[in-house]
TrEMBL record, chains A, B:
CDD domains: Trans_IPPS_HT. GO terms for molecular function: transferase activity. This is Polyprenyl synthetase family protein. The keyword Transport does not apply. Keywords: Isoprene biosynthesis, Magnesium, Metal-binding, Transferase. Gene3D superfamilies: Farnesyl Diphosphate Synthase (1.10.600.10). It comes from the Bacteria. Belongs to the FPP/GGPP synthase family. Its EC number is 2.5.1.-. The keyword Magnesium applies. PANTHER family: FARNESYL DIPHOSPHATE SYNTHASE. Its cofactor is Mg(2+).
Length: 313, 313
């Protein structure tokens, strides 16, 4: 076999290469999630946990973890666990968000939401158990096999996940969101809310991937942080755009609900055209960060930024 | 000053000594919780988190962590964090348990429950944020001070907490509980439900305390595990008894709700007198485990077992 040419900075994936990369990463993720989620749990709880996580979702966060880990030459066993852990935090937040006391949504990923399918109490518990499992995945007992993850890396991944998920991350952003319904927000306030609500976990994904190499170059860490921040905002801007322009069937969730709930969004604040331009600008910032990272191969990260901005659901 | 005599195996605390020990441990716990909970969170969320955790609760779990850590000569900085982490898991579970879709309770520790005070959505988020914070507390950045906790210990504490809190621990037990309302359970099924629902976190407290000395003797570890298991069951038996014999004012929560909710309990299964005898038997088992632990000073653990069985609320 001929060795593939070593990619150099600035090289890009063809659509086919990216698709193959995604395919492989998604298979690895689905297989790991299926092996870990709900296993050993009491029957009803395990079923609700698996329903909430498996067979659905774009897996953007595990893709980001993996792409960042590859870019820095991180430990694969750590990257796969980190990717699944972040996805479980994302999944639990959707389960709780969809509940009647929050967004009261009945459709998610084209299926009835967890509380519709299993009842509210089970949805609450399944979400709680998924959060605990996220942290558990990061701290496997070291057993002397090739899958060992050094304790310092385990602890660091927990630290990054906790910061991304907790009151100064995702949960904090949701609380600001809750308090802001029906209020007029400035662009700064809206940005701060989303920096926490969606951005923290996306940035956390990139950082956890980068942390999979404990010797990662500090300049690369900073560049990947800048990339993750730009991508996090871009994701939310596009989400707000899609909520307006796409239909529920395409989204796999209820469209138009931000306006219906009188929630401030980038579209309500900037208008559709300026929101679109803002998303493209953020995408360019993400690419610029990668170009300045000093990392040899950031093709997957670059392609993921494009995907986030150009997605239709 | 004359040095106090070194306690020997089998020595017991006087009521006064135990009271002083408790006092000191509770002050340390309250002060740490106040320093860590809700700080840096968006205002409304931080307030709900602090309301759920501060100024209330017996702090049994932190007391157990600290007593076990003392018995094995564990690292104090780790024990204080572990105690607070376990208490946060306990507190979040109460917040979610009290919600209308679960037990729908309006009174807790003599105060309105979190969802009554702040609304359901805020209660849901505060619980979620408390769980994330529990794990965050266990993995502080090591900064070269005396408070440093080795990474291996950080990871191990996360592992023990995750197992105690998640689908194979507390959350799993709650799911069995939920599925068993209105059903006839055998004593074995009831015991299994409580082993997870209440027992896992109490056992987890003892184990996390014991883990604070990474070189803890394996025989002592096993003995403390047996102690924690007996104590966990005893706690629930007494809880079931108090639900029947105490009034709401004494309990600080709604009394008689198990019968009202048609929940199987040790009292409904064994009757009041046999339930009481069972609690005493479990207390004796806990003492026997300590006596065989090979540890020089288990006075606090012994006194805590007595307190659990003889409490009136």
């Amino acid at each position: 076999m001929i060795a593939e040419p070593q990619p150099t900075a600035g090289a890009v994936f063809s659509a086919q290469e990216f698709s193959a990369w995604m395919q492989q990463c998604l298979e690895r993720t689905e297989s790991a999630l299926s092996r870990w989620v709900g296993v050993g749990a009491p029957a009803g709880l395990g079923e609700a946990m698996r329903y909430a996580v498996l067979d659905g979702g774009k897996r953007l966060r595990p893709l980001l973890v993996w792409a960042a880990a590859e870019a820095v030459g991180g430990l694969p066993a750590a990257a796969i666990r980190a990717g699944c852990a972040v996805e479980l935090i994302h999944a639990y937040s959707l389960v709780h968000d969809d509940m009647p006391c929050m967004d009261n949504d009945v459709l998610r990923r084209g299926k009835p939401t967890v509380h519709v399918q299993f009842g509210e109490a089970s949805a609450l518990l399944a979400g709680d158990a998924l959060q605990a499992l996220a942290f558990e995945l990061l701290v496997p007992e070291n057993d002397g096999t090739a899958e060992e993850i050094p304790a310092a890396l385990q602890a660091r991944l927990c630290r990054l996940l906790g910061a991304a998920a907790g009151s100064q991350g995702m949960a904090g952003g949701q609380a600001i969101d809750l308090a802001s319904v029906g209020k007029q927000l400035t662009e700064d306030q809206l940005r701060e809310m989303h920096r926490l609500k969606t951005g923290a976990l996306l940035l956390g994904s990139v950082r956890m991937g980068a942390a999979c190499n404990p010797q990662v170059d500090p300049a690369a860490w900073e560049a990947l942080t800048a990339y993750g921040q730009a991508l996090g905002v871009a994701f939310q801007v596009v989400d707000d755009i899609l909520d307006v322009v796409a239909d529920s069937a395409t989204l796999g969730k209820t469209a138009g609900k931000d306006a219906a709930n009188d929630k401030p969004t980038y579209v309500s604040l900037l208008g559709l055209e300026r929101a679109r331009a803002h998303a493209e600008e953020l995408c360019a910032q993400a690419h610029a960060a990668l170009a300045g990272s000093g990392l040899a191969d950031t093709r997957a990260l670059a392609a993921l930024a494009d995907m986030v901005v150009r997605r239709t659901h």
